[in-house]
Structure prediction request, 331 residues.
Amino acid sequence: MIVIAGGILVALAIFLILSRFIGLWIRALVSNAPISLFHLIGMWIRKVPAALIVDSRIKGVKAGLPFDADDLEAHYLAGGEVDQVVLAMIAADKAAIPLTFQRACAIDLAVKGTGKTVLEAVRTSINPAVIDCPGGGGKIDAVARDGIQLRARARVTVRTNLDRFVGGATEETIIARVNEGIVTSIGSASSHKDVLENPDDISKRVLERGLDSNTAFELISIDIADVDVGENIGANLQISQAEADKQVAQAKAEVRRAAAVATEQEMSAKTQEMKARLVEAEAQVPMAMAEAFRSGNLGIMDYARYKNIVADTEMRTSIAGEEDSDHNDKF
Prediction:
């Protein structure tokens, strides 16, 4: 009884397992993409969604691409998107673009976490995409050799290069290189009028620089969508330089003025010193005259003549001062 019960349990377990995968097995068999039951059970044990592998293999077989179930399972275990790889392979085959399964898996793993898929990469290779430079609806500011600022916006048409997609630079590099090329082209122009007359010269110069090297894209065309005239940067720089030179000259003049004021103050101090010495010398005259009286070298008549001469001198000085004042009033 125990043996019979054990056999019944084993048979029941086998039936449940087979019933879980029998539908997938039949679907794969009738789709000409057969997968053995043991393989399906092995996927279940390895925690691989058997339905995803079966459906992906059926899609490939119907499109003429018989994918190996082990390869699909290995890519899933590596963290890839199996359905995206299969769809990308089908799209590339229909567009006659050479793409191997290994490269498609490598591209899928490379774009993982970037928000893009290998299918989008293949579609971009079929239908070129347009990238706005500098992006975000802005414009690139550059200055021509005559000092006039120009603001340009470009539209870059690119096609995905599947051979360089893994390890190649992304759209950000393309945008940065195109921006640099536009700035260089405008900066080398002798006049902003030349750029406005022939904006296609910018596109030619940028394309000649080979900006798509080591990138995941191939440049098809660069079109200048819009060019606007900005400020006169050269004139503004000259005005700023002139203002700076004026401030420097004013500072130097202020230094000279301060030096002159200091010299004037110094001379005023010397003048006051000389006046003080003069007053001191004049104060010695009465003392000398008194000493002359005492020593008999100066008499009364001599002193009287001295006083007359002083009075006469003061009178003449007063008269001369009044005449000068009247003369100045007339003018």
Remarks:
- The first strand starts at residue 129 and ends at 133.
- The chain has a mean pLDDT of 81.
- The longest helix spans residues 233-295.
- Residues 33 and 58 are 6 Å apart (CA to CA).
